[in-house]
Amino acid sequence: MIEGKQLKKSFGKQLVLENVSFTIPDGAVVGLYGDNGIGKSTVARLICGTLRPDAGEILLDGRALVSDYQPYDRKRGIVIQQVFQQPHAALDPSQKLLSGFSELIRYHRFATNREEERKLTEQILFSVGLEPQILNHLPHQISGGEAQRICIARCLLFNPRLLILDEATSMLDVSTQANVISFVRHAMQKNNGSVLLISHDKDLIKFITDKVYSFTNHTLEEIIL
User: CB–CB of 224/33 below 8 Å?
Assistant: First the structure.
């Protein structure tokens, strides 16, 4: 589904990625493992279109999504969603969580009426292990772990082909991390969607992924943990 080919990215004189290639098959959970600051999030930003490669390309279903000569295709790229490490930054501090879900659903026309909107919201919350009562809270009234699950739930509204979790369960304890990722995997695989799990946690990566990539000298290689 997603393929990176010979990607290169530098920031000024600092080389971060060179000749990076990878594949993320349909329905797979792929791990991206390595120490902090090594370039994992840069790969995610290239896939999501917040960065453009200096060389190489990323393909979606065999067609270029972005390259060094072609800007990111935003219309096709909406099927790729990302959850970041700092979840509260993605939530409006003055808006109750219910309003955030409602606005998103109505803007993208994910439901045709209020009843469908309510059912969809509750279904998505259940998929990440949250109760509907949390929707009455403001972001500062929930924990970091709850905020991460809210952000995951919002991404799942898009029924994405690929969900990128960039250290997105780091605020959860080990057992809760495994439960949430299992929830996410089940929700994604209903429609043959994939997950890219970015983490420095070797045990978590080993437990949940189908294949793992690790950094070596600014490039990626598939490894067995």
Answer: no
CA-nearest of 16, 19, 23 to 6 is 19
Residues with Cβ < 8 Å from 115, sequence gap 6 or more? none
For the chain, the residue count is: 225
Mean pLDDT per 10-residue interval, the chain, length 225 residues = 96 94 95 87 94 96 95 95 85 95 94 94 89 96 89 92 86 73 82 91 85 90 87
Residues 6+ away with beta carbon under 8 Å from 189: 27
Q: Domain 2-223, what architecture?
A: 3-Layer(aba) Sandwich (3.40)
pTM for the full predicted model: 0.89
Distance CA 45, CA 53 (A): 10
